[in-house]
Design a protein that fits this description.
Strand order of the largest sheet: 2-10-9-8-5-3-4
Shape: globular
Family: Belongs to the class-V pyridoxal-phosphate-dependent aminotransferase family.
Mean pLDDT: 97
Bound molecules: pyridoxal-5'-phosphate
Helix content: 25-40%
Order of helices and strands: EHHEHEHEHEEEHEEEHHHHEHEEHH
Strand content: 5-15%
CATH architecture of the largest domain: 3-Layer(aba) Sandwich
Keywords: Aminotransferase, Pyridoxal phosphate, Transferase
CATH topology of the largest domain: Aspartate Aminotransferase, domain 2
InterPro entries: Aminotrans_V_dom, Aminotrans_V_PyrdxlP_BS, PyrdxlP-dep_Trfase, PyrdxlP-dep_Trfase_major, PyrdxlP-dep_Trfase_small, SP_NH2Trfase/AEP_transaminase
Low-confidence stretches: none
Largest sheet: 7 strands, mixed
Protein name: Purine catabolism protein PucG
CATH class of the largest domain: Alpha Beta
Cofactor: pyridoxal 5'-phosphate
């Protein structure tokens, strides 16, 4: 049998994306046991880096083993119990994922919606909170399916004043846009690994405040076999998930070092190294880099003759959405772009599936030479496939001009 051969790709999607070789190298280190003092030191340092990444003083800032939805599910299933009202603003596919997870946790979902490509004004969400009086407001910060960045900076305070908790999915914007958790008074926030942070999928940084921790600990149950008499038994209203129970995970990610699960130590190496690189770059500088390349790509695509999709005042700074040009078939074009050139772009879901493409500039990929190479190939290939009103060289010229005129 032949040994593994993986072809090189230029991944211009909203994740997963390429990983910095320093992260891959970190992940090739020897295995440590999950209670080895070398590893528990690394856990503490990783928690500190997660705090910095979210600009928070929260005690609780640690990763969940599993892809981003594991982080979201852990937060939702720990805070939502049977019959709890949860308000979910929906502007795309990932709002529906929140609904799914809340329903599975037994919550009563209330929604407020906007068509894909739009956001919901914060005043409208606050008015809806007054009407519904939810226990939790669960919201997506970067709705990857439509490329919109939902404003949330007023919602934490408003929810708190109404006795509600905020849960924010910042999976796609984390480390690509600034998310000052304490300043925005957000209770629980979930970041993503395989996007702007550029770590292989499988680990998810989260943070939450003491108010949130106190609430979830009302439903704490430590499993038999590792529970102490102080833990009690709690046979009634306990958190129903075991693996994604934040209260038991607090036991592992603290001095107690509760023997709950076998930590994915190698993923923590990768997370640590990527966070170190991100914090060394600087949270604001990293956000600036994403906006800079986002703008460059957008200007090039527009000059090439493509129409930008959605409300341009609320774009995620790491995804450009364009209307698929006349005469092009979504999956066929993307398939050929991948097969012939090793370049991947994304389609989408729901009401605009087959109508738009999403082109991502996330984390390690958000570099000038990647975008120059992408635009050169993408424009010429579109023209070669007979897309109408496309001028490939105008796109490349606009991109070169942008980079010549604008400093990062
Ligand atoms: C906004 C958002 N939330 C949640 C998810 C789910 O993440 P995962 O596929 O890592 O479980 C994604 C993935 O693309 C996302 O973009």
């Amino acid at each position: 049998m032949a040994s593994l051969k993986v072809n090189r790709r230029l991944i211009m999607t909203p994740g997963p994306v390429a990983v910095d070789p320093r992260v891959s190298q970190a992940m090739s280190n020897s295995i440590l046991g999950q209670f080895d003092p070398d590893f528990t030191d690394l856990m503490n340092e990783t928690m500190e880096l997660i705090r910095k990444s979210f600009k928070t003083q929260n005690k609780w800032a640690y990763p969940i083993d599993g892809t981003s939805r594991a982080g979201i599910e852990a937060v939702i299933s720990s805070i939502v119990s049977k019959g709890d009202k949860v308000l979910v603003p929906v502007i795309g596919r990932f709002g529906h994922l929140l609904i799914e997870l809340i329903e599975r946790a037994g919550g009563e979902v209330h929604t407020i919606t906007a068509p894909m490509g739009q956001i919901i004004p914060q005043e409208d969400i606050i008015k809806e909170m007054d009407k519904v009086q939810p226990k939790v407001l669960a919201i997506i910060h970067g709705e990857t399916s439509s490329g919109r960045s939902q404003p949330i900076d007023q919602l934490g305070k408003a929810a708190k004043e109404r006795g509600a908790f905020t849960v924010v999915d910042a999976v796609a914007t984390y480390m690509g846009q600034d998310i000052p958790v304490d300043e925005w008074e957000l209770d629980a926030v979930i970041g993503g690994a395989q996007k702007c942070l550029s770590v292989p999928s499988g680990i998810t940084p989260i943070t939450y405040n003491d108010r949130f921790s106190e609430e979830i600990n009302k439903r704490k149950r430590v499993e038999e076999g590792i529970r102490t008499t102080e833990d009690g038994t709690n046979d009634s209203n306990f958190i129903t998930s075991n693996y994604l129970d934040l209260t038991q995970l607090e036991g592992y990610w603290s001095e107690r070092r509760l023997n709950h699960h076998t930590e994915a130590t190698v993923n923590v190496y990768g997370l640590y190294e990527s966070l170190k690189l991100a914090i060394d770059e600087g949270v604001e500088q990293r956000a600036r880099r994403h906006s800079y390349h986002h703008q460059a790509l957008k200007e090039a695509l527009t000059a090439m003759g493509l129409d930008i999709f959605g409300d341009q005042d609320y774009e995620m700074q790491m995804v450009v959405c364009v209307d698929i040009p006349e005469g092009m078939q979504d999956t066929e074009f993307r398939g050929e772009l991948l097969q012939r050139f090793g370049i991947e772009i994304a389609g989408t879901f729901g009401e605009v599936a087959g109508k738009i493409w999403r082109i991502g500039t996330m984390g390690y990929v958000a570099e000038k030479h990647n975008i120059m190479n992408f635009i050169s190939t993408f424009g010429v290939f579109l023209q070669a496939k007979g897309a109408k009103n496309i001028d490939a060289s105008a796109g490349l010229k606009a991109l070169m001009e942008f980079y010549d005129k604008n400093e990062l």
